[in-house]
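User: I'm writing a short report section on ligand binding and want a predicted complex to refer to. Could you take this sequence and histidyl-adenosine monophosphate and write out the structure as tokens? A short remark afterwards would be nice.
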Amino acid sequence: MKQIFRSIRGTTDFYPPQSFVIEEIIEKVKAIFQNFGYEPIILPHLEEEGLFKKSVGTITDIVEKQMFKIESKDIVLRPEGTAQVARFYIENNLSKLRDFHKFYYLGAMFRGERPQKGRLREFNHIGAEAIGSNSFYLDAEIIELAVKIVREIGIKDFSLKLNSLGCIKDKNRLAQLIKDKLAVYKNTFCPDCQKRFNYNPLRILDCKNEGCRVIIHSLNLDRTNYLCSDCNEHFSGVLNLLDEFAIAYHYDPLLVRGLDYYTNTVFEIITSLLGSQDALGAGGRYNELISNLGGDRVGAVGFALGLERILLLLDTPTQINRLEVFVASSSLEMYKEAYRIARLLRENNIPSEIDYKDRTLKAQLKYANKLGIPIVIIVGDEEFKEGYILVRDMEKSLQEKVRKEDLLSIIKRRKRC
Ligand code: HAM
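Assistant: Sure. The structure tokens for the complex follow:
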């Protein structure tokens, strides 16, 4: 029996037309990032396990349950990009080069979760990190950037929620507040939250368990209960800018995010169309991360959007083809001429295709039609010997006889129309 290999659950094979849609998204995204002054970085898929333990946090789903570890080594497939960018920034002493950096990255992340719609083991991040400033203008800019990308990709159904965790002192105050208010319920929490109560109380706030959620909502948390005046002012600055830029948001005092490195602003872009995996992207400030990993104390903020979740919301067109010309020939002798023409067109950056299967002329036209190629050049024995080539407009079903030497300029002109 032949063995047929299948893709791993929770991974995706992308092929046309969807792979073309992804390329179009990437082109758009790159243009937007560059417009906002972000520079591209391409970092490896493998990192030390300790990097994520120290930055994302040991009592987090990512570190406790989801990292793919290379057996017998302290190396993991990166589950996210922020800690990695911080590692790269510190290792290369980038603060000495310039006191402010803006990076963007597009690439695969890996999390060993039980796969379901929108939750994959291998997925792609569209991410940005701005390192070196604590300005609330930068928080507002990064939020605007994330929202702009989602919108320009063509997503309509989304909303933005945000919160502020404050500085480390405020976070500790919030953790204590949660512990004080929740102590009486401790034994009624789910097993995960009972553990979180002792080691990471903030994480109780985003527990999905129904029983825990009822208790959490009864807390009536508000930022004024735990933010210091500086952090309160910073957050008000962000909110005022979002108001001024008419970026709609919802303040959600229960939003804490499942990664430990966040301080101050945290946000999520969510949709109502994806069920439980409703976050299209998320981000926030991480003013302590770089110093925790051994670098200077610098303000930083960033976000990452999940490409696959975005794709789930987009209609996939039935056909996308970037080929513009098919060069058909009426005989084997003419095939060589056709091949020369295809080469000439490609050299002139006119995407062109030719037959490789010894098809008849009729079958070549049918194939070109199937590929959706708008122009077919027909190299026919008789016309060619008289110095002519046929150019067929497949949409209008119109055919024109052109002189060989005029072919290139005619095709170039058609391309422009
Ligand atoms: P995150 O919330 O873990 O944040 O991931 C960002 C986005 O990646 C999510 O909102 C979601 O769209 C997508 N995503 C996450 N896990 C999966 C999965 N298993 N399958 C498919 N898509 C997924 C971070 O990773 C932070 N590094 C974001 C950040 C950047 N914060 C500051 N800078």
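A remark for your report: The pocket of histidyl-adenosine monophosphate is lined by residues 80-82, 111, 113, 118-120, 123, 125, 127, 129, 279-284, 302-304, 306, 308-309 (CB under 6 Å). The chain is about 40% helix and 20% strand.
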